[in-house]
Write a structure and sequence with these properties.
Blueprint (H helix, E strand, L loop, with lengths): L1 E6 L4 E8 L1 H15 L15 H8 L5 H20 L8 E6 L6 E8 L4 E2 L7 E3 L7 H14 L2 E4 L12 E10 L2 E14 L21 E7 L13 E15 L5 H7 L5 H35 L1 E2 L3 H21 L4 H8 L3 H29 L5 H14 L4 H8 L2 H21 L1 E3 L14 H23 L1
Parallel strand pairs: 6-13
Antiparallel strand pairs: 1-2, 2-4, 3-4, 5-12, 7-11, 8-9, 8-11, 10-11
Helix pairs in contact: 1-3, 4-6, 5-6, 6-9, 6-12, 7-9, 9-12, 10-11
Length: 467
C-alpha cells in the first residue's frame, strides 16, 4: 500500500491510497464468498456458481462495491497512521481507479487538527456570577414542591371551560387542502394546555370550550416540518373535547411544610429551602465563573476550524441528542413530528455548539502544551477509583480493563488542570451596581421664575372671572 498526502486550504488534506492489485483481487474473492449464496446462475445450485461465471454473466463490477468496503476497513486506519496527519473528521472517500487486475486507487479527504494561536489567557477579567438567593427564588422552589404534591381531578361541571394548564382528553382529525393526511388523526389523546406539544397555536384554540364541544382548530405547519408535503401548509383539525382535568394545589401553610419536609412550620421550611438553594447556587456560580473564564480565553484565541470537523462533531452531538430523547420513552420520529424538525435540521442546530466545543477543546489543549500542564498521579488515581466504583470494579482491574484508554483519561484530566489554572489566574470582578438617577435640583433662579409665572397665571384667571 502506498499513501501520498496533499495539503489543502482551510486545514483540509487529501490522502491518495494505492492498494496493490493482488490485495484488491483478494477482496473481490472475499466479496464473492459473501454474496455467492444470494446469486442464481442457470445450471448451478445457488452458492456453487464459480466467481468467473458470475462475473461473465453480470460483469466484474458485481463484487466491486463490497470489495471496496473490505479494502477500506483494512487499509484506511493504516493509511491514517502512515500519513502522519492528526485527522479530525470522517473521511470523504472517492474511488479514483478500479479495474480488474489493476491497483485500486482511492482518495480520502479529511479535516486535520488546526493550529491554535493563543491570545491573552492569563489574568483575563470576567464579571463573577452572583450566588445570592432571592425571596422570589425561594418562593419558586416552594411552588415547584407544591406542584409535585398537586392532585389531578376530573371536572364534573358541564359549564366549566378549558383553561391554561388543564389536561384535556381529545379526539382529533387533521385536514390539509380538504383531505386527511398521514399522522393527523388521534383518539383519546391527553394534552396539557400550554405544553406546546402540538404545532403553532393549536392548544390555545381549545381554551374557553366545554366538554363535548367540537372545535375547528386552524394552524399552519412550520416551513421546516419533517414531512415535505406539509411544510408551510395551513391545516384544519376537527377536535372533540372528551374530558377536562385540572391540578389542585395544597395550601402553603404549616401542614404543607410538615408533610413535605422535616419541619413543623412554613417559616422553618422556607429557611431550609433558602439554605439548600444557596449551596446549589454556590456550586452553580463556581461552574459559571469557570465557563466565563474559559469562554474569554477561547475568544482571544485564533483558530481556523474546518467545516468538515464541525460537521463530524455536530453528527455526534445529534446522535447523543437522539439517544437522550429515546431514553425518555419517546421515539425520535415522533419528536420530529411534534417539533416540525428533520434529522438534518437537528444536526444543523447542533453546529454552533459543535464549533464552540471544538474551539474550546483545541484552545485548552494548546494551553496544556504551552504550560506543560500534567495532572498529578493522585488525581488520575482518584478518577480511576471513581469510575471503577461506578462500574462495580476494583481500581486495578478497571485500570487494566481500559488499557490504552488511560492516555485519553489523562488528557482529559490535563485539560481540567488547565481550566483550574486559568480560573486561578483570572480576575473575577463584581458586576457594576445599578445606580438610580439622582433627582436634579432646580436652581433658585428657576424656582423664582416658576413662582412668578404661577402668580401671573392666577392674576389672569382672576381678571377673567371679574369680567
Amino acid at each position: 500500500m502506498n499513501v501520498q498526502v496533499e495539503k489543502l486550504e482551510k486545514n483540509m488534506a487529501k490522502m491518495t491510497v494505492t492498494v496493490p492489485a493482488e490485495e484488491f483481487e483478494k477482496a473481490t474473492v472475499e466479496a464473492y464468498n459473501r454474496q455467492k449464496n444470494r446469486i442464481s446462475i442457470p445450471g448451478f445450485r445457488k452458492g456453487h456458481a464459480p466467481k468467473a461465471m458470475i462475473e461473465k454473466m453480470y460483469g466484474a463490477a458485481i463484487f466491486y462495491e463490497e470489495a471496496v468496503d473490505i479494502i477500506l476497513d483494512r487499509t484506511y486506519p493504516e493509511a491514517c497512521r502512515e500519513s502522519g496527519l492528526e485527522i479530525a473528521s470522517r473521511p470523504e472517500i472517492s474511488v479514483d481507479k478500479i479495474e480488474k487486475g489493476q491497483d485500486l486507487v482511492y482518495t480520502a479527504t479529511v479535516a486535520v487538527k488546526p493550529e491554535v494561536e493563543l491570545g491573552e489567557y492569563k489574568g483575563v477579567e470576567v464579571v463573577k456570577a452572583d450566588s445570592e438567593v432571592t425571596d422570589e427564588e425561594v418562593d419558586a422552589e416552594i411552588k415547584r414542591e407544591q406542584e409535585k404534591n398537586a392532585r389531578v381531578v376530573s371536572i364534573e361541571d358541564p359549564e366549566r371551560t378549558v383553561k391554561a394548564e388543564d389536561i384535556v382528553n381529545i379526539d382529533f382529525d387533521g385536514f390539509v387542502d380538504g383531505k386527511e393526511f398521514a399522522g393527523g388523526k388521534g383518539e383519546d389523546y391527553p394534552l396539557t394546555i400550554g405544553s406546546h406539544s402540538f404545532i403553532d397555536n393549536f392548544e390555545d384554540q381549545l381554551i374557553g370550550h366545554k366538554v363535548g364541544e367540537e372545535v375547528d382548530v386552524n394552524v399552519t405547519f412550520p416551513e421546516q416540518y419533517h414531512a415535505e408535503e406539509l411544510k408551510g401548509k395551513p391545516a384544519l383539525f376537527k377536535v372533540k373535547i372528551k374530558s377536562i382535568k385540572e391540578k389542585q394545589y395544597p395550601a402553603l401553610d404549616d401542614d404543607f411544610a410538615s408533610e413535605v419536609s422535616e419541619f413543623d412550620t412554613l417559616a422553618e421550611y422556607k429557611e431550609s429551602v433558602k439554605k439548600q438553594l444557596k449551596e446549589r447556587k454556590d456550586k452553580w456560580a463556581a461552574q459559571e465563573n469557570e465557563n466565563k473564564v474559559v469562554a474569554a480565553v477561547v475568544a482571544n484565541a485564533k483558530i481556523d476550524v474546518p467545516d468538515a470537523m464541525v460537521d463530524t462533531e455536530a453528527e455526534q452531538l445529534a446522535a447523543n441528542f437522539r439517544r437522550r430523547i429515546e431514553s425518555q420513552g419517546m421515539k425520535f420520529e415522533q419528536y420530529l413530528q411534534f417539533t416540525g424538525m428533520t434529522p438534518e435540521s437537528v444536526k444543523d442546530n447542533m453546529k454552533p455548539q459543535a464549533e464552540t466545543t471544538i474551539r474550546t477543546r483545541l484552545t485548552l489543549e494548546a494551553i496544556v502544551d504551552k504550560e506543560k500542564i500534567e495532572a498529578p498521579e493522585e488525581r488520575v488515581q482518584a478518577e480511576i477509583e471513581r469510575a471503577a466504583k461506578q462500574y462495580g470494579m476494583e481500581a486495578d482491574a478497571f485500570r487494566e480493563a481500559i488499557g490504552d484508554q488511560i492516555d485519553a483519561l489523562k488528557r482529559d484530566l490535563n485539560v481540567q488542570e488547565a481550566i483550574d489554572f486559568l480560573v486561578a489566574e483570572a480576575k473575577l470582578v463584581d458586576a457594576p451596581k445599578e445606580e438610580k438617577p439622582e433627582k436634579k435640583k432646580r436652581a433658585p433662579r428657576a424656582k423664582k421664575a416658576e413662582a412668578a409665572a404661577s402668580e401671573e397665571k392666577k392674576t389672569e384667571e382672576t381678571a377673567a372671572s371679574e369680567e
